[in-house]
Automatic annotation (TrEMBL):
<dbReference type="InterPro" id="IPR006766">
    <property type="entry name" value="EXORDIUM-like"/>
</dbReference>
<keyword id="KW-0732">Signal</keyword>
<keyword id="KW-0964">Secreted</keyword>
<comment type="similarity">
    <text>Belongs to the EXORDIUM family.</text>
</comment>
<dbReference type="Pfam" id="PF04674">
    <property type="entry name" value="Phi_1"/>
</dbReference>
<keyword id="KW-0052">Apoplast</keyword>
<protein>
    <submittedName>
        <fullName>Protein EXORDIUM-like 3</fullName>
    </submittedName>
</protein>
<dbReference type="GO" id="GO:0048046">
    <property type="term" value="C:apoplast"/>
</dbReference>
C-alpha cells in the first residue's frame, strides 16, 4: 500500500468515513481486506485430530462471541452489476462455471437449496436508511487480459493498475460504475499474487482515485489448481499435512474453479455489505475487519467448523455440493445471519 493518501476525484468523491479509513490503513501499512482460508491462522500440524476437532462443530451457534456492528457506511442497495476481468489463460468451460454461479445469485425457480436462497441472507443487511442489499446481481461487461499485461506475478497494488487498464482500454473498456458496480479480477492458475496460498485465496477493497481515477469496489480471486489446491480449493483437494484425508469430488469437474466459487461468493457477499470497509464488520479496527463471510470460513453445512465442512449433499455422480444453481451445482460457504446471529445457509438442517 502507498504511504500517502490518494487524491480524491471530483467525479467520484470518497465518503468521509471511507477517506478516514484509507488514511488510517495506509499509514499503518495494512493490506486490503483479505478473505478466505480454510482455517485462519492455522499452522500446519501433524495432529490431524486437532484439525478435525480443534474448533467447535457448533461454531455457527456461537453468537455470544461475535459482535458484528454497522459503522454507517454505504452498502449496495441498487441493482449490483459484476464486471469481470479474466486475467491470464482461461478455458471456455471454466468461464462457463463462474458465469453460471454469478447468474445463479438472482435466479428464480431453482430447486432448493439454491444459490439465490444463500443470497437472501446477504439481503438481510441494510444501510442507515433501512434499505436492504439488492436482490438483483447481474453479469456486466467482461474484459480479457490474456497476454498478462502486468506480468504473471502481481502485487496487491498492481491489481489496481490492471483494473485501470480495463476501464481505460482503447477498445471495449469496462464501464465505470462506482455506485453499484463490482469489479471482479480473476487470475488463471499460472499467475501468482502477493501472499497467495500462504495468507489469502482472495481479497476485496476499493480502488484509489490517484491510481484508477475512481473509487470502485473490487475483489481478486485466484485459481489455485497449480499452486495450492489443498489450501484454496479444499475440500476438493487436501493439504499435504492432512494425510489420510480423501478429497471430495468437485461438482463441475474442475477442482481449481470449483474451489474459486466459494471464494468468489465470500468476496461478493462482503463487497455488498462492506464495499468501502466502513459498513458491516466485527472488531474495533477497520484495517482488520472481520466481515460476514469471515465469521463463517469453512462452514458449508450444519455442524461445520474447523476442517469439518458440515452436512453436505452428494449427487448421483458422487460429487459434493450444498447449493443448486442454474443447471449446475456449487459448494458455497455460509455467511453470518444478522437476525439469527449465527452462520446460516439454505441447506441448513434446522430450517
Amino acid at each position: 500500500m502507498p504511504n500517502s493518501c490518494p487524491r480524491r476525484s471530483p467525479a467520484t468523491p470518497v465518503p468521509v468515513l471511507a477517506g478516514l479509513t484509507v488514511i488510517i490503513c495506509l499509514f499503518s501499512s495494512v493490506s486490503p481486506v483479505i478473505g478466505w482460508r480454510p482455517w485462519p491462522n492455522q499452522q500446519p500440524t501433524n495432529n490431524t485430530t486437532d484439525l478435525l476437532f480443534g474448533g467447535s462443530k457448533k461454531y455457527e451457534g456461537s453468537s455470544e462471541f461475535v459482535h458484528l456492528r454497522y459503522h454507517m457506511g454505504p452498502v449496495l442497495t441498487a441493482n449490483i452489476t459484476v464486471h469481470t476481468i479474466w486475467y491470464g489463460t482461461w478455458q471456455k468451460s471454466q468461464k462457463r462455471i463462474i458465469r453460471g454461479f454469478l447468474n445463479s445469485i438472482s435466479a428464480v425457480d431453482v430447486k432448493a437449496p439454491s444459490v439465490a436462497g444463500w443470497w437472501k441472507t446477504v439481503q438481510l443487511y441494510t444501510d442507515q436508511t433501512g434499505a436492504n442489499i439488492s436482490r438483483t446481481v447481474v453479469l456486466g461487461e467482461e474484459k480479457n487480459d490474456r497476454f498478462y499485461s502486468h506480468g504473471k506475478s502481481l502485487t496487491r497494488l498492481s491489481i489496481q493498475s490492471v483494473i485501470k487498464s480495463a476501464v481505460t482500454a482503447r477498445t471495449k473498456p469496462l464501464p465505470v460504475n462506482p455506485k453499484s458496480g463490482l469489479y471482479l479480477l480473476l487470475t488463471s492458475d499460472d499467475v501468482y499474487m502477493q501472499d497467495f496460498c500462504g495468507q489469502v485465496c482472495g481479497f476485496h477493497y476499493f480502488t484509489f482515485p490517484s491510481i484508477v481515477g475512481y473509487t470502485l469496489p473490487y475483489a481478486w480471486v485466484g485459481n489455485s489448481a497449480k499452486l495450492c489446491p489443498g489450501i484454496c480449493a479444499y475440500p476438493f483437494a487436501v493439504p499435504v499435512y492432512m494425510p489420510g484425508f480423501k478429497p471430495m469430488k468437485s461438482p463441475n469437474s474442475d477442482v481449481g474453479v470449483d474451489g474459486m466459487i466459494s471464494v468468489i461468493a465470500h468476496e461478493i457477499a462482503e463487497l455488498a455489505t462492506n464495499p468501502l470497509v466502513n459498513a458491516w464488520y466485527a472488531g474495533q479496527d477497520p484495517c482488520f475487519p472481520t466481515e460476514i463471510a469471515d465469521l463463517c470460513e469453512g462452514i458449508y453445512g450444519t455442524g461445520g467448523g474447523g476442517s469439518y465442512t458440515g452436512q453436505l449433499l452428494d449427487g448421483h455422480d458422487g460429487a459434493t455440493y450444498n447449493m443448486n444453481g442454474v443447471g449446475r451445482r456449487f459448494l458455497v460457504q455460509w455467511v453470518w445471519n444478522p437476525v439469527l446471529n449465527y452462520c446460516s445457509g439454505p441447506n441448513a438442517l434446522d430450517q
